[in-house]
Amino acid sequence: MKNSLITLLSILCFNLANAQVYTEKQTRHRFAQMHLGLDYQTNFSGTTTFQNAQGQLETKDLQSLSNARFLIGGTHFWGHADFYVAIPLYNQKMMADDLEINYSTGIETVFKYYPWRIENHKIRPFIGTSLAPFYFRQINNNLHFPNGAYLSRVKLPLTSGFTFNHKSHLLEVGLTYNYANQEA
Length: 184
Prior knowledge:
The chain is mostly beta strands. Helices cover 5% and strands 59% of the residues. The chain is built from one helix and 13 strands. The longest helix is centred in the first third of the chain and has 10 residues, at 2-11. The chain is elongated and about 70 Å long.
C-alpha cells in the first residue's frame, strides 16, 4: 500500500494546475488569470545528533522529506509571470529510540518569470524564486527536559523548469536549488 501511494504521489511531482486559457489578444481583462493545482515536492535527507539514554551522542539519519501541496495562484502580465502560494497538505514526523523529530515546510510563496508568454500547446521555460519556510523540532524523551533542538528559517531558493499549457491545464517540470552555507 505504501509503495503504491508513493508511486501515485511521485506521478504528481509534475505540477498540474487548472488555469484559464490565454487568448491571442492582450486586453486589460486578460492581465491576470487564476489557477488552482496540486504539487508534489521532495527534498533530500540529512542527519541529526541527539543524546541517548546512556548520555552519549548518537547520530540519526533523517528520511527524505516529501510533501503534497495545494496551489492557489495566478498568471500575470499576460502570461509572463506566475505568482502562487503552496500550502502543505500534511507534515512528516519521525519516531525512533524515544526521539520524536518533526520537520516540515511551511506555506511557500513563489514567483516565476517566463521570458516567452505561456501559450496553448507550447513549452515555455521559466526561472524564479520563492520564500520557503522550513521548520525542524527534535523532542528527546530520554532526557528530564525533553525539548531539544528547534530551528525555523526562511530560505530563498532558485527555481527553473518548463511549463506546458494544454487547454485549461498547466503541466510543469522544474528543479529548485537551495543554497546551503556552513553555519557556526
